[in-house]
Structures are given as C-alpha cells and as structure tokens.
C-alpha cells in the first residue's frame, strides 16, 4: 500500500487558494465540498510535508487544519492545527520506531476532530476508528488480531464518521505523487474549478 500525505482545511478552495499558493512550495489543492478543501503537497521538497505546512497554513488562514500521513498501510498519524499551534496529535501505532512494533493508539480523543465535521457525526464510528477497533468485518485483521488491517480504512472511517462523502474521502487519500503518475485518471474526476496548482508544480492535465 502506497503512503500518502494530505491536509483537510475547513475553508472552501476558492477562499483558501491565495494563501496556499504562497505557503506551499509545490503541490495541488482540491475541492472537498462546499466548506472544505484538501492540500496534496510535494513531500520530496524540503519543509513541504503536511506536518511542516499545517501550522503556517492554519495561522495564515485562521482556519483549522487536519494533517494526515499514512505509512504504507501500516500507520496513520493525524495532527490538528489551529492558529499556528498544534492542538492535537494522534498516532495509530505510537511504538512504531521502538522495539515494540505496535501499541494502543495515542490521544484517541474524538472531540479533537469535531471542527472537521461536514455533516452529522457518527460518534460511535469515530470513537471506534480512533481506538483502532473497526466496526466492519472486512476491515478487521484476518489473523484475529485487534485493529485495522490497513491504515487507509482507519482514515476512511474517521472522515466518514465526520460526515464526509465517499468522493471527498477518496480525494483525502490521494497523494501528490498519485496525481503525477496518473494525471488522466484524476482529470476525469476533477474539473478546472476543483484543482489548484501550487508553487513550482506544473498542471497535470
């Protein structure tokens, strides 16, 4: 499973675009419904990853930012930024870099993510997802171990519980490099008003 890094911002794309063009050195921004947008930065550029950009973007826009990074299907990190300050950090596998390969998720606080609700919140699904306890059988570990098989499914359930439609959740799992590799596929699902090119990036389609 490929890694990806994205930011969900509580502001429409058209309103956020001028600041995103200034702050993000390279990447794309896409629409995520009438009240939200997504940023897909080129993480190969120094200081241009989601966790480096979330603070400055939240400060400049005055809007909350949810930065997400998913590691090859194994681990999901989420950071909530408000006014240039990190307000919350979630890690689905906090002992990833230690001898213990797994662990109970850290800071699984559903209330920290409510700023990013796009509709009615499914509190039960949100709490279960953050606790790494999937509701749907197909997301459970086939060996009977607790937790999600794939971190993408955990991320999906968090955004689904916050009321985001499937189309937005799919976009939230796009990476800059996905768009670069398959521009025609992404061009079929985005019109000219739904994608903004940031920094030194060329328009993909």
Describe this structure in words.
The chain is of the alpha+beta class and 205 residues long. Helices cover 29% and strands 21% of the residues. Strands 6-5-4-1-3-2-7 form a 7-stranded antiparallel beta sheet, sandwiched between helices. A hairpin with a 5-residue loop joins β2 (26-31) and β3. The longest helix is centred in the first third of the chain and has 12 residues, at 50-61. The protein is globular. The two termini are 25 Å apart. The mean pLDDT is 88.
Write the layout of secondary structure elements.
Layout: E1 4-9, H1 13-23, E2 26-31, E3 37-41, H2 50-61, E4 65-71, E5 75-82, E6 85-91, H3 123-130, H4 151-161, H5 166-172, H6 176-181, H7 183-187, E7 195-199
Antiparallel strand pairs: 1-3, 1-4, 2-3, 2-7, 4-5, 5-6
Helix pairs in contact: 1-2, 3-4
Distance between the termini: 25 Å
The total beta strand count reads 7
Q: Would you tell me the overall average pLDDT?
A: 88
* Strand content range: 15-25%
Spatial arrangement of strands, main beta sheet = 6-5-4-1-3-2-7
């Amino acid at each position: 499973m490929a890694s990806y890094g994205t930011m969900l911002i509580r502001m429409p794309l058209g309103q956020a675009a001028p600041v995103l063009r200034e702050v993000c050195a390279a990447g794309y921004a896409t629409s995520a419904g009438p009240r939200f947008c997504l940023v897909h930065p080129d993480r190969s550029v120094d200081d241009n990853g989601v966790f480096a950009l979330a603070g400055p973007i939240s400060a400049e826009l005055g809007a909350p930012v949810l930065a997400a990074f998913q590691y090859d299907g194994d681990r999901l990190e989420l950071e909530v930024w408000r006014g240039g300050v990190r307000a919350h950090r979630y890690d689905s596998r906090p002992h990833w870099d230690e001898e213990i390969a797994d662990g109970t998720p850290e800071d699984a606080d559903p209330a920290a993510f409510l700023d990013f609700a796009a509709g009615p919140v499914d509190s039960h699904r949100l709490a279960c997802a953050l606790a790494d306890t999937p509701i749907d059988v197909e997301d459970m570990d086939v060996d009977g171990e607790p937790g999600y098989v794939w971190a993408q499914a955990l991320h999906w359930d968090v955004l689904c519980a916050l009321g985001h439609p499937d189309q937005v959740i799919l976009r939230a799992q796009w990476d800059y490099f996905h768009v670069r590799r398959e521009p025609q596929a992404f061009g079929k699902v985005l019109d000219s008003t739904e994608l903004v090119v940031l920094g030194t990036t060329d328009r993909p389609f």
